[in-house]
Amino acid sequence: MIPAQILDQITDKCTEGLALALACDDDGAIMELQWCNSAFTRITGYGFDDISGRRGTILIGSSMNQGDHLIIIEKLMNWEHFSVKVSNNRKNGEQYWQKMSWVPLSDAQTGNRWWLCSLVELEDRPRDLSRRRPYPVTEPDQGRSAEFIEKIERLEKENARLHELAKIVAKESNEDPLTGLSNRRHFEIELKSWISDLKQGGRDFAVFYIDLDRFKSVNDTLGHDAGDRLLISVASMLRRLTTDGDLVARLGGDEFVVLRPLGESALNISGLADAIVQEMHAPYAFEGKSTFCSASVGVAIANAKMDVPEQVVADADMALYHAKSQGKGRWSFFTEEMHADAVATKRLVSDLLIACEKREFIPHFQPLIDADTGRIMCAEVLVRWVHPRLGLLPPSAFLETAANMGILKRIDEITFAALPGILASFDMAAVDLPRLSINISAGRLADPTFIHDIKSSGIDPQRLTIEILESVYLERIGDVVQWTLGELRDLGVTIALDDFGTGHASVQGLLKIRPAVLKVDRQFIQPIVEDETARALVASIIGIGKSLGMSIVAEGVETESHAQFASAMGCDCLQGFHFGKPMSADDLKARLVETRGTFWHPGPDLSEQKQAIRSF
Asked: Which residue among 22, 125, 285, 472 is buried most deeply as judged by most CB within 10 Å?
């Protein structure tokens, strides 16, 4: 037996262009291309994705002589083994000469009939073609000429018939050309039939909506051939896990769907969902390389009590989205709560678009306090949405949806635009607000126009701190972001890294971004009063920051004890509800006037407390 690897090398290294087409039993001229080798792509310019499922006519270019085309059709119709030398066109339209050979094949097991097409590029116009002369029209040969003309006319009519037949076959085809499963069109027809049967007293049924979680990564890392083979493998797996009573379809891309009649036991449904997820947990190997591509599944039930059973596919899709949001590689069953959430999300999306038009976003401010003096050092800007129906909404109520909509930049712009006027009003009232700190979304940080917006805002860059999340930094530290950070420093803007410790930043990462301020996340500050281990962790973070010359901010300071411990451990600045919740500009101004800028009194024995706490 010849090793498979040797056969693969012959396929890839063969200089002759090869393609395989699955032919119609009744007419050999009707075919769908299924495979080609690399030489075929090099000669014609057509890759596998270009030819897969396409009719053989894609191989006939505009430069081919009509007579040659008709002769090819006739021989294909008669299942003849033949070769022709013809002028043809590559995918880009370039004309060239080729030798085209066709060999009929058959599959004894399935009965399918195939064509093997081979192409050899010719360097020049073949001599035997250049010596061709028109058919003579002398008296002795007039009958032969008339016979040939009649033959051409018959072939032209037959060619037109084949084109029309091919259109009908393509329109009525129910099969996905890559996987052999039902295609989207057939699925939609069957779904209508199942729903019609359901309304007439038929059985309830389940819809399984399946999506591969990392399919794009497979294509990007291993290539589209690997992606196609993975899809074929998934199709084979679904056939194996389902029964003849189920319908399995590929909707397109990496999306599959299964229709299954509802059995007596719920395990009939949950068992299939479990099996699909578990099967896809295994690594996928292609040509000696392995990758991981899990699947998420959404399940919904169509029953006669539903007002709109046609909604069942959308319900399954919603359950799929829920499964992905919970971490992927799992399945989820549709619930009415999901529907209510979807309706609420649609309403939120609509309201957010209107809010951007009406500029309904305003800044609120939370003070940052000097750990030694208790005076305000800065105020962090936090966006609030003045919703006309729901009132003042915090970021948690809308920012995730806004990010999915791609409008965070617009919200940032609206919020930032309000700051120069607010700072000016504080200065005119002789109220000391040293600086503002504002969080910047990933998209805004990667926007080259951001620097221009800061320069033209009227805010003194020396009074501005830009905070970036640790997760944002890790995901977006590309060339544009590096350039933006460098420009900000040159302007005099302070860079702060927010929520430090919640992601995966390393010391090397800190050296790369070089923030002037390191903000320790509240989840580490909250337990320091009671938990010695937490204090040791915070002390380590403070030590790292200090060794790199950074100022340290403790977030989540909610009690006097938190303030005393954080200050004594070496934090330079404190932020939290102990000094005030986020407030409007007017409330902050009033608070500054009332306190004269001092929000906290550390006490005279702070140095002793620092020594005592550090001795723990």
From this structure: 472
Structure-token match 């920051």, residue found:
545
CB 547, CB 564: distance < 8 Å: no
Residues 247-289: tens digit of each pLDDT:
999 998 999 999 999 877 667 888 999 999 999 988 887 777 7
**Exposure on the CB side of residue 69, measured as CA atoms within 13 A:** 18
The residue to which tokens 């200050």 are assigned? 567
Residue keyed to tokens 């989840």:
523
pLDDT at 70 > cutoff 70? yes
Q: How far is CA 388 from CA 351, 352, 392, 393, 395, in A?
A: 9, 11, 9, 10, 16
Q: Strand 436-439 to strand 82-89: parallel, antiparallel, or no bridges (unpaired)? A: unpaired
SS3 content of the chain, % helix, strand, coil (to 5): 45, 25, 30
Which residues lie closer than 8 Å to 267 by C-beta, 6 or more apart? none
Rounded to whole angstroms, the Cα distance separating 48 from 39 reads 12
Residue 212: strand, helix, or coil: strand
Question: DSSP strand E in 253-306: where?
Answer: 255-261, 284-286, 289-291, 295-302
Classify residue 132 by its DSSP letter: -
Work out the end-to-end distance of the chain between its first and last CA atoms, rounded to an integer number of angstroms.
75
CA nearest neighbour of 225 among 3, 14, 12? 12
Cα–Cα distance, 461 to 11 (Å, whole number):
64
User: Three-state SS string across 413-460, please?
Assistant: HHHHHHHHHHHHHHHHCCCCCCCEEEECCHHHHCCCCHHHHHHCCCCC
Question: In 10 A of CB 354, how many CB atoms?
Answer: 10
Are the C-beta atoms of residues 558 and 577 closer than 8 Å to each other? yes
3-state secondary structure 97-118: EEEEEEEEEECCCCCCEEEEEE
Burial of 184 (0-12, 13-18, 19+ CB in 10 A): middle
Residue in 299, 352, 366, 404 with CA at minimum distance from that of residue 576: 366
How far is C-alpha 194 from the geometric centre of its chain's CA atoms? 32
Give tens-digit pLDDT for 551-589. 999 999 999 999 999 999 999 999 999 999 999 999 999
Query: Which pair of tokens denotes residue 498?
Result: 């927010």
- Measured CA to CA, the distance from residue 102 to residue 83 in angstroms comes to 6
